[in-house]
Amino acid sequence: MALDVKFLEAEIIDQYLYDENATRPWIIGFSGGKDSTMLLQIVWNALKKIEPVLLTRQIYVVCNDTLVENPQIVKFISKTLKKIQKAAVDQQIPLVVKETIPKLEDSFWVRLIGLGYPAPNRFYRWCTERLKINPTTRLITEKIAENGEAIILLGTRSDESSRRAASIKKHEIKGQRLRSHPLPNAYVFAPIKDVTTNELWQYLNQVPPPWGGTHKELVTLYRNANSGDCPLVIDTTTPSCGNSRFGCWVCTVVNKDKSMDGLIENGEEWMQPLANIRNFLIETRDNPEIWREKRRRDGTEKEGIWGPYKFETRVEILKRVLKAQKSLEETEGIELITHQEMVLIQYHWFRDLFFKTRVSTIYNRIFKTQMDMSKHEEKLKEENELLRKSCKQEPKDVELIQDLLALQKTKTLMMRKRGLLDDIENRLDQFIEETKEKA
């Protein structure tokens, strides 16, 4: 093997033992792909050569789940992380696995279906910051606050792409192993930056992982998907994904999801509904005159700039996601959208004055069951009956009052009253306009 593994391990050992600040933790970015797997394995084997009494620096293996990752990869990474954590305890390596996820209000479906954000493209990639950068940044910032500084170990390699090579060169500090990072008091250590792709695969094929098992499943995934992987994204200088990659199954930034197509062609036909949804998202994005509002969320209109998805579009996307989830839950045990996300989607629909179609109604029709959006469902039914009796003389007022109550209840559910008065005034204005039109 042309790769000098001993040199890489010596670099890692030297940095670990003779760092000027021995208290700053190491944060290893782990995506489950080939690059981060080699990084973690090289670091692990290097640490095994250090006397146990000197292993005092805390190490965190950080894996980010966007909640819309390719389900096949999620299964694989989940199994791998469990092996890593167990082996670290058994081998007395000071290593802890940390998984990060986006905030509920930043999740892909809440933004896209709830607020009507259009499917991302390479010019408006709203997903990267909310799903990837922010969750990981929160953890890194937390560790910096606890320890003063932190070193982030990444599996970025110059050989992977010209853009990554340029990014590495731009931020490196001449004569030093560590390079700067946009976060204050954070530094980047990229031990395998000069390793070629051929050397990487030779290493993974010849050296088994120290946490047990083999790399056969990883190699098979790459072979079947004909794909690269998404690195752990920690800032805007880190490329989100290449043109062919493992990553979010909803990704519309790439023209063609070669990894998912490859997996489907190689026997994973159950993923076809996911591919269909992704293709539909591209259609809604690329045909704004059909699927999007002319007005932006602030109420303004500008030639050539489209607003959020129409309410009908959001409903159609939710229907397609839930139909796919129903079939996948039965066959694969996969959940595409959570109950909490649907509650927040309903909250945003109310705020956008969408009352006629409820999330729970869509869910119940597809799953042929009852989904309670709150604990007060029975009480709401009683209130509606009382309301109808009270408004016998003015039946048209029933819907208005129900909508105003829904706004108030949703605000209570979200523990936020801010903006409630504006929402009520907007609904009243809408009611007045509708009354005028009918007159």
TrEMBL record:
Keywords: Coiled coil. Pfam families: PAPS_reduct. Gene3D superfamilies: HUPs (3.40.50.620). The keyword Coiled coil applies. Residues 373-434 form a coiled coil. InterPro entries: PAPS_reduct_dom, Rossmann-like_a/b/a_fold, Sulfate_adenylyltrnsfr_sub2, SulphurTrfase_DndC. Transmembrane segments: none annotated. Residues 28-206 form the Phosphoadenosine phosphosulphate reductase domain. One of its GO terms (molecular function) is catalytic activity. The keyword Coiled coil applies. This is DNA sulfur modification protein DndC. It comes from Chitinophaga eiseniae. The lineage of its organism: Bacteria, Pseudomonadati, Bacteroidota, Chitinophagia, Chitinophagales.
